[in-house]
Specification:
This protein is mainly α. The protein has a single domain, classed as Helicase, Ruva Protein, domain 3. It has a two-stranded antiparallel ribbon. Helix 2 packs parallel to helix 6 and helix 3 packs antiparallel against helix 6. The N and C termini lie far apart (29 Å).
Length: 120
């Protein structure tokens, strides 16, 4: 599936704060912890818990969120399909970064070992 310009725009304008509670619910429902989720997010973005809370409080869009992030150099190793999109084929860099995050949350929820999720 190819991401449309409208889809990319919608992703850019979505706030991290609106999605984060869904990430927490997803991983906790599958027996993982919020701390593990924070570890995964920090690995990808470089954001610690305080910075994450600041972004949530400021209702940062994904555009702002990833503009401030220091993306992990191994993030390009995140491959596969998420939400019907093959991550490595996404042309819009921001949409690709959001899907990286979605994929990591998905892997965590599916019980994948942390070393594999963090590409170490």
């Amino acid at each position: 599936m190819k991401a449309t310009p409208e889809h990319n725009e919608r992703v850019a304008k979505m706030t991290f704060a609106s999605v984060y509670p869904h990430y927490i619910n997803k991983v906790e429902k599958k027996g993982r912890t919020k701390e593990e989720l924070l570890q995964v997010i920090e690995w990808l973005t470089g954001f610690d818990e305080n910075k994450l809370q600041e972004l949530i409080d400021n209702k940062a869009t994904f555009e702002t969120f990833f503009k401030e992030a220091k993306l992990n150099p191994n993030a390009n190793q995140i491959k596969g399909v998420i939400c019907g999109y093959r991550i490595e084929d996404l042309e819009n860099p921001l949409t690709q970064k959001v899907r990286y995050l979605d994929k990591l949350v998905d892997e965590l929820a599916k019980g994948r070992k942390m070393e594999k999720i963090l590409r170490s």
